[in-house]
Design goal:
The protein is of the alpha+beta class and about 220 residues long. The chain is about 20% helix and about 30% strand. The strands form 4 sheets. Strands 1, 2, 3, 5, 13 and 15 form a 6-stranded antiparallel β-sheet that branches. A 4-stranded antiparallel β-sheet has the order 4-14-6-12. Strands 8-7-11 form a 3-stranded antiparallel β-sheet. It is globular.
Length: about 220
Amino acid sequence: MLKSLERDGFTSQKRLAPDLGTIEVARALGRVVDVEALLPLSKIPTVQSLKPRTQDEVGLNRYSGHYGLDAFPLHTDLAHWIVPPHYVLLRCIAGSKDVFTNILPWAPIVDIVGMPVIRKALFSRRRRRIGSSMLVRALMEYGKTTIMRWDPIFLEPVNKDAQVLASTMLDGRRNAKVIKILLNEPGDSLLIDNWRTLHGRSQISAESKLRHVERVYLDEVHQ
């Protein structure tokens, strides 16, 4: 799994230790971001339960509050944080046969807009939050690692380069490069490099309203 994560920016495995809890699997894979301890006032659990919700069931601080059962756009999780979590673990609890996690490495976006535009793209947060910065760049250097980020809801373009990037994310040319991952059996797991790879979710059908995925953030994975 770790070799493909390094090579592709994501890795998936069917029925990974289905008898273990998500937090146990996450700790076996790497160092978990303890969100409950890091942001106690946010009331965000370390293991987050993701279930389909209509727009009127949740607030606008969540994707379901904007898109409901429609498809979620490609994005970086917690892109408004100063340093977003490095890895996202998604693990199937109750699956569906027609809801996919969409994956897109940054390379096709770079090919369309060019690295100079991404380097200069500057965004502001939608509103001030604990643990987040007022202004963030689409690309930043963090130690020896490059972080790339994008979010259509929680980040707002500040300059022309950010507007170009935002428009590109709506460009249909990138859709041909999207990789679709199906989490449909208990234990099916997807580990995403959140700094190098965008992800989203396809539309929820009437037959898939019981879909249940758990999410955990990690700041490093074991070598």
